[in-house]
Amino acid sequence: MPDATTRSGGTATASPRAAATKLTATASPCAGREFTAAPAAAVVVPLGFTARCTRALMSPWSRLSLLVLLLAAAASCVLAFEPQRLLTRGWPPQLGGVTAAVVFAVAYGLCTVAFVPRPLLNLAAGALFGSQLGTGTALAGTVLGAGVAFGLGRMLGQDALRPLLRGRWLKAADGQLSRHGFRSMMAARLFPGVPFWAANYCAAVSRMRWAPFLIATTLGSVPNTAAYVVAGARASRPTSPAFLIAMAFIAVPALAGAVVAWRKRHHLRDHGRAGRAAARTGRGG
Question: What is the pTM for the complete model shown?
Answer without folding.
Answer: 0.70
